[in-house]
């Protein structure tokens, strides 16, 4: 479930409708804001027409899952993304690759991604997700459109927890105060498992 992104959802739907969606984005902002969730919803929209996570397997979507025992995301992963993106979409409007924790990309992997971003295959979308675009090499960061994801206000977060997740009001108030506007953090604090 996405909360607090109604304006962004409308903007991206309009970009898609008007065939103005860029081929590469950097989604940035604090951890546990919802950047990766938004990217997954966007991929689902491109394939299913619904801006929501689906239980259906998306065939034109790939997400890099960083290995927990490795600190870096290497060039092999970047080459895998390249291979994925160079295939034509089966169902979706675009082949979509998402890289959460893109700050873990090695310089070599970023250089490989830069080549893709500079000469992208048709009908592709690549989204790099990280706290700050400055973690990327300058040529890669400069060629991606940057979308900032802000924190929610404490009031909005508290309201979301009560209305959408049925968290008791006093618990929601405490979690909202302690999570500093990050929905993912608030849900972790209250022990919510989706």
Description:
The protein has helices spanning 6-17, 35-48, 75-85, 107-118, 138-142, 154-165, 169-179, 183-189; strands spanning 24-28, 61-63, 95-99, 124-130, 145-148. It is of the alpha/beta class. It starts with 5 loop residues before the first helix and ends in a 5-residue tail after the last helix. 34% of the residues are buried. The model has no long low-confidence stretch (mean pLDDT 92).
Main sheet properties = 5 strands, parallel
- Helix/strand-derived category reads alpha/beta
Strand ordering within the main sheet: 2-3-4-1-5
Classify the oligomer: single chain
Q: Total number of helical segments?
A: 8
In helices, the fraction of residues equals 40-55%
How much beta, percentage-wise?
Answer: 5-15%
Distance between the termini: 10 Å
Number of strands: 5
SSE string, helices as H and strands as E: HEHEHEHEHEHHH
Mean pLDDT: 92
Uncertain residue ranges: none
């Amino acid at each position: 479930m996405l909360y607090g992104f109604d304006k962004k959802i409308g903007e991206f739907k309009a970009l898609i409708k008007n065939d103005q969606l860029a081929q590469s984005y950097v989604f940035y902002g604090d951890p546990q804001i919802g950047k990766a969730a938004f990217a997954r919803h966007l991929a689902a929209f491109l394939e299913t027409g619904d801006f929501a996570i689906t239980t259906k397997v998306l065939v034109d979507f790939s997400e890099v899952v960083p290995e927990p025992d490795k600190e870096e995301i290497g060039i092999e992963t970047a080459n895998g993304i390249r291979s994925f993106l160079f295939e034509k979409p089966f169902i979706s409007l675009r082949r979509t690759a998402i890289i959460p924790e893109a700050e873990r990309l090695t310089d070599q992997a970023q250089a490989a991604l830069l080549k893709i971003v500079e000469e992208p295959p048709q009908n592709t979308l690549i989204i790099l997700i990280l706290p700050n675009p400055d973690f990327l090499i300058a040529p890669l960061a400069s060629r991606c459109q940057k979308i900032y994801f802000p924190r929610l206000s404490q009031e909005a977060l508290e309201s979301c927890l009560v209305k959408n997740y049925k968290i008791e009001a006093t618990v929601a108030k405490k979690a909202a105060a302690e999570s500093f506007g990050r929905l993912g953090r608030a849900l972790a604090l209250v022990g919510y498992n989706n």
